[in-house]
Amino acid sequence: MARFTITLHQRAADAPDAQRVSVREEGELPEYGQVWVWDMLYAQQLYALADSPLAGELRELLELWAVNMSSKVFQPWDHIRLKGHLRLSDDLELLRPESAAAVESEPVQEVVLEVEGTAEELPRIRLSPDILPAETRFWLVLALAQYFVSTNDLFARELPIHLLAFRKYHADINLPETAEAAEEAPFYAIQKAMEYFQSAGSAQH
Q: What would the 3-class secondary structure string for the chain be?
């Protein structure tokens, strides 16, 4: 179906705090499928990160953004973009593929995310390599989210609600480092987001 090559580049000497990442997309993933793919990636990487401090840092960063964004999802999108609300982290610099090609240094790490499955079934994801440093997992999740947010308004509108649903699932049902959460949390997030937007849509009529 689709393939995403996520490359971590050397940090720039004049901006050592910012991790530079590029995302190259091949194939076709429907816009509505992006949030499901990202939800699976997020759940699986939280499971893989287990008790690493980066797991807590990733959740805190994304959930804080989600809380701030959740009240804005029905505001004019141009206004939201202009105000910089769609930037997930000041420490992430998402490079365009052409800019990444101009970066002369060797990449720090390259990860391929393959989306598999037929049109009739929910897609599955596969990472290569699947054994990764914790820091790579952190930036992988963040970079793909920022890439989808930057290219798909539908994803950007839904992501805050999905993240708040993940937070509720992890608080009430299973901790993020459990196998159950890795499997079930994406379904829970999809369901809760669907209920939220249906309810909000009804309230507006």
A: CEEEEEEEECCCCCCCCCEEEEEEEEECCCHHHHHHHHHHHHHHHHHHHCCCHHHHHHHHHHHHHHHHHHCCCCCCHHHHHHCCCCCCCCCEEEECHHHHHHCCCCCCEEEEEEEECCCCCCCEEEEECCCCCHHHHHHHHHHHHHHHHHHCHHHHHHHHHHHHHHHHHHHHCCCCCCHHHHHHHHHHHHHHHHHHHHHHHHHHC
> Mean per-residue pLDDT for 40-61?
97
Other Cβ atoms less than 10 A from the Cβ of 82: the count is 10
List the structure tokens of 174: 């299973």
Amino acid (one-letter) located at 103: V
Q: Would you say 166 and 185 are in contact if contact means Cβ atoms under 8 Å apart?
A: yes
From edge to edge, which strands make up the β-sheet containing 2-9? 92-95, 19-27, 2-9, 109-116, 124-128
Rg (CA), the chain: 17
Query: How far is it, in rounded angstroms, from Cα 202 to Cα 101?
Result: 47
Query: Which amino acid appears at position 143 of this protein?
Result: A
Give the whole-angstrom CA distance, residue 126 versus residue 41. 9
Give pLDDT tens digits for 165-189. Answer: 999 999 999 999 999 999 999 999 9
Does the reported pTM lie above 0.85?
yes
Angstrom distance (rounded) from CA 186 to CA 200: 21
